[in-house]
Write a structure and sequence with these properties.
Layout: H1 2-23, H2 40-47, H3 49-80, H4 85-93, H5 95-99, H6 102-112, H7 119-126, H8 139-168, H9 172-179, H10 184-212, H11 216-221, H12 233-242, H13 247-271, H14 276-280
Subcellular location: Cell membrane
Keywords: Cell membrane, Membrane, Transmembrane, Transmembrane helix, Transport
Protein name: Sugar ABC transporter permease
């Protein structure tokens, strides 16, 4: 196990130690000044209203996007769980959206939403709903575009996890419920869904972590605009570190974000019915 442990140490522990050290200093990328400042960077981060607003916007995006993906993923997984050639083909096609890199997907969406050459604006004009609408120029519509992109790209991922879970469930409880006169909805609500909760927990946890890490689609589609209405925490870290060159402040912001996610994941697993302590036991 030594090679694997050494690789894990190099890839995770060493960068984390460097991040903690940098967060306690006021170093810059330019190498000017720098020194130990203790928890000053953390105090600045936790009292800066811009950073708190960025975290709230990030939370809003994650909650809305992941909720829609879980709902739509379940609606796709239930009919596709039955083994058939057409369902196997549909499951294969569902791999395409999240197989495309996020930057390419965001660039495609940006062109589709263009007010002058975009297909979306063109077909809206053809049905008489107006033309030359700047989707990315307004706060509400920019959020609609970003969330729509994320839902399009990651709903198939959730659907495949839930579909695999449905296919692994034993059929006997559902058959017994049908014999007792339960409707399809009652069987799903009281039999299938409780047994499916471990897979829901997996999908919820993976997608929540990935959604909190989203950077590409925001950077390409809106770059935090219009104004700062779509400025999320990852864009803030990027600007502080690589535009303002304040490595210490960016490291402190990243550490606060890391601690937040470390506390959130066990909570998600517990809410979804998979307590990590119970699983370990």
């Amino acid at each position: 196990m030594s090679p694997a442990l050494a690789l894990l140490l190099i890839m995770t522990v060493v960068p984390t130690v460097y991040l903690v050290r940098a967060s306690l200093r006021n170093d810059t990328l330019l190498g000017i000044g720098g020194g130990f400042v203790g928890l000053q960077n953390y105090r600045d981060v936790l009292t800066d209203p811009n950073e708190l607003h960025a975290l709230l916007r990030t939370g809003f995006f994650v909650v809305v996007a992941v909720a829609l993906e879980l709902l739509l993923g379940m609606l796709l997984a239930v009919p596709l769980a039955a083994q058939s050639r057409s369902n196997n083909l549909a499951a294969t096609l569902m791999l395409l959206p999240f197989a495309v890199t996020p930057v390419v997907s965001a660039m495609i969406f940006r062109e589709l939403l263009s007010p002058t050459t975009g297909w979306v604006d063109y077909y809206i004009g053809r049905v008489g709903l107006g033309a030359h609408f700047d989707w990315l120029g307004g706060s509400n519509t920019a959020w609609l575009a970003i969330i729509g992109l994320d839902v399009w790209q990651w709903t198939p991922f959730v659907a495949l996890i839930l579909m695999a879970g449905l296919q692994s469930l034993p059929p006997e409880p559902s058959e017994a419920a049908a014999i007792d006169g339960a409707s399809n909805w009652q069987t799903f609500r009281f039999i299938t869904l409780p047994m499916l909760m471990p897979f829901v927990a997996i999908a919820l946890t993976l997608r929540t972590i990935q959604a909190f890490k989203t950077f590409d689609s925001f950077a390409v589609l809106t770059n935090g605009g219009p104004g700062t209405s779509t400025e999320i925490i990852n864009l803030n870290i990027y600007r502080v570190a690589l535009q303002s060159f304040r490595i210490g402040a960016a490291s402190a912001l990243a550490m606060v974000f890391l601690i937040f996610l470390s506390l959130l994941v066990p909570l998600l697993l517990r809410v979804a019915g998979r307590d990590p302590e119970e699983g370990a036991a």
